[in-house]
Design a protein that fits this description.
Radius of gyration of chain A: 22 Å
Low-confidence stretches of chain B: 1-23
Radius of gyration of chain B: 23 Å
Largest sheet of chain B: 2 strands, antiparallel
Number of helices of chain A: 19
Shape of chain A: globular
Order of helices and strands of chain A: EEHHEEHHHHHHHHHHHHEEHHHHH
Largest interface: A-B, 60 and 58 residues
Number of strands of chain A: 6
Oligomer: heterodimer
Chain lengths: 516, 515
Amino acid sequence: MRRVTATTATDGPGALQPTGHQVASTAGYLSARTLVACGAGLAVASVLAVLDDGRALVPLATAAASCLGAGGLLWRRCGVPASLRTASVHAAVLTGWMLLIGVGAATYLACGTFDSLELAVVESTTGFTTTALSVLGDIEDQPRGVLLWRAYTQWLGGLAAVLVVVAVLPSLGVGGLEESRVGSDRRRLALRSPRIVAVARRLASGYLVLSAAGILLFLLAGMGPFDAVTYAMTTISTGGFGNHDGSINFFESARVEWVTAGGMVLGGTNLVLVLAAVRGRVEPLRRSFELRVYGIVIVLASALLVWWTAPSGGLTHESIRHAVFAATSAVSTTGHTVGGWAGWSSGSQVLLVFLAGMGAMSGAAGGGFRVVRSMVLMGFVRREVVRQLRPRSVVAVKVGRTTVEESLLGQMVGYQVAWLLLAGAGAVALAVAGVDLHGAMTGAVSALATFGPGLGDFAPGAGQVPRAGGLPGTALLVFAALTVAGRLEISPVVVGAATIFTGAGRESRLARVKRR
Amino acid sequence: MSSLVARRRTPAARTFEARDRRPVSAVANVVGFALVFTAAGLAVCSAVELLTDDEAVVALAVPALLSVVLGTGLWKGTRVPDRVSAASAFAAVGWTWIAISAVGALPFWWSGMLPALDDALFESVSGFTGTGATVLTPIEGNGAGLLLWRQATQWYGGMGVIVLAVAVLPLLGVGGFELLRAESPGPTSDRLAPRVRDTARRLWMVYLGLTVLIVVALFLTGLSPYDAVAHAMTTVSTGGFSNYDASIAAFDSAVVEGVLIVSMFAGAVSFALWWQVLRGAGPRALARSSELRTFVTVIAVAIAFVTVVLALDTGLGVVSALRGAAFTVVATMSTTGYATVDFALWPAAGQLVVLGLMVSGGMAGSTSGAMKLFRVQVMVAHARREMRHLLHPSAVLPVKLSGHVVADPIVSRIVGFFVLYVVLAMLGTVLLAALGADLVTAASAITSAIGAYGPALGDVGPTTTYLNLDRPSRAVLVVYMLLGRLELFTLLLMFVAPVDSLRYHLHVRRRRLSR
C-alpha cells in the first residue's frame, strides 16, 4: 500500500491527542462506542425481560453487562489518533460492524433463539444492515426482550449506517452532496472535528425525533406500546423486521398501514432535512432537488402500482393502500409487506425490485443506490449525449443548482460499476449456493439495497416478513455478506478488508513510536 | 471528432460550413449506396430461388429492382458534402440501417413466409443487426433463396458494422471508440468520407477472405455447399441465424461445432487486428492486444466454470458438459447466438454466466455486439482507481489499458456509454415486464437484443422463438436491436440532422416570404 498522500495531519481542536494512558486506535474508538450502544439496548431489553416474567433475562443481562463493561474499558483506553489514515478508518468501520454482528449473533445464541451459529449470524447481519430478511420462526412466541433487541439491532444499524456514511467517511461523497455538504472536502479526515461532530449530532437528533414521532403515531393508530416501539424502530430505520408472522398485515388496520407507509417514506428522507422541517425551517426542503425527485419517484411508482395491481372490479381502498405501501416499502428499502406480491403482475414485481435498487435519499437510513447518485448519473449521461454532437462544449453536471465536481462524478460512476459487478457476482454466488434464477437475480440486488424481499426463492410469503428459512445456509450467508457490502457502500468492506489483512495495527504502533 | 470540421479556417467560414447546408445529401448518398449494395444480394438470392424451382422468385426480385432503382437514384443523385457534420454522420448511419432493414423485410412479407409485416420487419432487423432472434417457425421448408437471403442479411449487417466500428465511430468518438483509432487500417486522413471509403475496402477484403475460409472449412466437414455458405455468412458476422430449426444441433457433429467455435471467435476479434496480422505484423499483433488476452481468458474461465456447474448439477459426463459449455460460451460471448444445447434449462448459475457474457460481448472493431470488452476493461479499471482514490485522495492515478494510459475524456465517454447502456437495459426490462414477461425473460430478452445476441432465457430460450412474446414486446425488441447495434448514440442522435435541416429550410422559407 502506497502511503504517499495518505497521512493528513489534522491539527486544531478537532484532533485530540491521546492522553497519557490511552492507545491511539480508530478501531478501538469506534468499537467502544459500538459496544456501549449495544449494551444500552441490551440493558433496556433486560429490563423488559423482567416485566416479561423474566424470560431470557439472564442471557440478556449478561450480554448487556459484558458489552457495557468491555465498551467502557475500551472507551477509556482508546483515543483517536492524531493523524488518521483513510485506510485505517475504513478498517475501523469494518471492524466495528463485524463487532456489532458478533454481539448480535452471540446474544441470539445465548438466548436460545437459534440453535445454529449460521442462522444467528444471518439474523444478526440482516438486522444491523436493516434488511427485511428474517430467518426466525415462531416470532410471536419469542420472549419480548429478544424481540426488542431484534428491533433494536435494526434501529441501531440504521443510525450507525448514516453516521458512517456521512460523518465517519465523508470521503464517500454521497454523504450530503446537497444538504450537509460534508462530502465536498475529500481530503479532510477528522473524526472529532467540530464540524463532523456537529453533523453527527444533527443526524442523530433527526433520527431520534423521527423515532419518537413514529412511536407516537403508531400508538395513535391503535398499536400497543410494545408493538409501537418495536415497529417504529424497524420502520424509521427502514429495517422491516416485524414482531408477528404476518408483519404489518397482523394488525389488519388501514390506519396502521398508512402510518407505516408514512414512516417508511420518512425513514428514506435525508435526516438533515427532517431536522430542519422539525425546527420549522422550510427553506432547505424547498431547495432540495433530491427531495423533489424522491417525492416524484414515490408518487409515480405508487401510481403505476395502483394502476397495475388494480383488481378487475375497479380500484378499492385496499388495492390503492397496498400498492402505495409496496411502493414506499421498496423506495425506502424497508421491506415491510402487507400481502405477498405473488399474485401481482410481473411488471409490478420487477418495478419494485428496481425501485429498491435505486433506493432512498442520501443521508437517510434507507439504502440502495440512492436517489442523488441516480440523478448525478442521469446528468452525466445527458452531458455525454450533448458532447457527442458538440465535443468541445463544456457542460457541468448539476443536481438542482449544485454543480457536481468531476472527481465526485468519477467516484459515483466507480461506485455504480462496483455495485453492478458485486450484484452480478452475488447473483452467481447465490445461484451456486442453490437459489433459483429469479431468486438469485433479485436476491443480490435486494441484498445490496438492504431491502430484503425479492422474487423466486426470495419472494415474500403471503403477508409475511420474508422468511428465507427454507434456503440453504450458504445462500443465506452470501445474502448476509451482500447486505453488509451494500449497507457500508462497498468501499469500507473492500478497502477495510484489504487493510486489515495487510496492515492491521500499523497505525497504533506508529502512534506509539511517535509519542516516544 | 475535431477532424470532421474544417481546421485553420476563419471563424466566419467555419460557422458557415458547420451549419452544413445540404445535410440531406450525405444521408441520402449513403442510404442509396447501401440500397444498391443490398440489391445485389437480393438478386443473387432470387437467382438461387429460380434455380431451386422455389416460389419466391418474384418476392425477391421485385425488392431487388426497387432497391436498385431507388438506391441508384439516391446515390448518384446526391453528393457527399466535403465536410460531414457529426449529426449527419449519425443520421446517415441510422437511416441506412433502417432503410435496408425495411427493404430486406419485403421478401419475407411478400413471399408469405412471414405474413405479418411487423414479423417480417423483426426478422429483417434481427438479421441486419446481426442479432439472430427469430420469429420464423418452422424455418425448414421455406424456399432456398429466401432462406439464403435471411442468412445474407446478417452478412450484410456484419459488413456495415465493421466499417462503422473501425472507420466511423472512432472519428465521431462514440463511446470511447477513439481507442481504436491507432489500430485502424485506413489512411491517417482525418476526413470522414475518404477514410471510410479506403478503410471499408480493406476491411471488406478481410471479411470476404474470412468468409471464404469458413465456407471451405465447413464444406470440408461434410456440409453441403449451400449449408456451408449459409452458415459461414452468419458465423463471420456473429449473427446466428441458421436455416435449420434446431440451429447447429441439427448437424450433431463435434467437428462442425469445433470449426464454428473457431470461426465465431475469429468473427469476434477486431478486424483491424486481422488487417494488421495480414499486413505483416504477424501473430505478434495478436499477442499485444490486451483486449484479446482478456477475451481468451474470460472464455477459458467461463467454459471451465460452466463445465463444472453442468457436470455437478446435471450429471452430464465431463466431455459432453465441456462440449456444450465451450460452444455456448463462445457463441454467447461473440454474440453469435447459435445453439447446440438448450441453455435456458441449465442450472441457474450457468444461465447467469450466459447472461453476463451477453452483456460483455467480444472485441471492439469486430462484428460482435453488446458492450465490447475494452469498455468492460476500462470500467473495471476505473472502479479500481476510484477505490484507490478513496485511500489516496490526492494521488494521480491514470486508467490504463494494455500499458497505455487512457485519456480522461475517453474514459468519460466510455463511462457515459456504460451508464446509458445499463439505464436503457433496465428501462427495457421494466417495459417488457410491464407487457407481461417474467423477470428472467424480460431481462434476458432485452440484454440479448441490445447485445445483438439472439436467443435469451426463460420463455424465449434457444429452442423457442420470439413468438412467445406479444407484438408490443417484439416492437420494443426491434428498437433495442437497432439501439445496441448502432452503439446507442447513433440511434438516439439520428434525428438531430433531419430536424435541423428541416428547421433550416423552414426558416429560409419564412425569411423569403417575409421579404
